């Protein structure tokens, strides 16, 4: 299709995509509980006559098989919301729609992702006779806690997949811009979760106890020192200690103290090294303080960085530049958040696009996972057009 034809199709679906986003936004169901959201998506698949497969509890894959030789493309969105209460206002005033559950909200934009993919599904079904190959419309359960990605990739593993595509709205970029840079785009993550075990006692006689709180504090400060001296120069690994919990009374030394946090990185090897550095510091610091440590199940690398394939990122960038121009297709620094789409890109070559949604005048620009986070609905058409343009570009380049 020509750029104008793609734009016309996106314009025709603009209100549909916005309605879908608002409906999903109202549901706002957390990981593994996306029952209403999944049922809504399933109904859209059935209305189009597309066969679909339920994946794990709430995930879905719909299939559009043109019957003609061509690329096999998996297009992905995520379904879940967060346990974040939503403010009634964004940064400028009342928001357009609210979660019906006061304890949860789409504070990361997955409602927008689902809506854009539903729009793409409808658009591609409408022009089925012009397409070649097979399309998989993948709606992933539980991205926030990673529970759905394994089952989704297992289901796709029974099929042929040439390339994958996904979009994440991003408050760090201005509305009306999109980034499809190659290489690392989002950080890998490792969990920090360990319990320091000492011996409780009276606060007046620390010599008769083994204080795990003091030991936990020493572990954190020693880890920071090790970071400076052992993380490779030029590599970035962030050390985010978010919680030290130990004891409740001011005169009671507890038996244990717990440290929780995360590490973020863009180089998998350096991330694994960082986990070992922290573990070594914890063990030796504990021994020095007559304590022991137990590491929780999340004390490990949890996901790899999101790394866009060089070839397909070039295909996407060339196509989007031709369609939208340089003022729209921008480069951006990698984002320190993490995403389960990293596993998709470990398995298949493809692109994870970042779609700008920052418009402070209208109140859009609060950080993700924040009660005031909101999506500029005007960008949804651009995301849909980018998806359709990528599909066309891959079709053109397919041999």
Question: How would you portray this structure in words?
Answer:
The protein has about 400 residues and is of the alpha+beta class. Helix content is about 35%, strand content about 25%. The chain has a seven-stranded mixed beta sheet with strand order 1-2-4-3-5-16-6, with helices on both faces. A hairpin with a 3-residue loop joins strand 1 and strand 2 (about 60-65). Helix 7 crosses helix 9. It is elongated.
Write out the strand line-up for the largest beta sheet, numbering strands in chain order: 1-2-4-3-5-16-6
Instruction: Give the helix proportion (percent range).
Output: 25-40%
Number of distinct helices: 9
Radius of gyration: 23 Å
Short synopsis of the structure:
Helix content is 36%, strand content 24%. The protein has helices spanning 3-27, 35-47, 110-126, 149-156, 212-230, 268-288, 310-324, 341-347, 380-397, and strands spanning 52-55, 59-65, 72-78, 134-140, 163-174, 178-179, 183-186, 188-197, 201-202, 237-245, 252-253, 256-265, 292-295, 301-303, 306-308, 350-358.
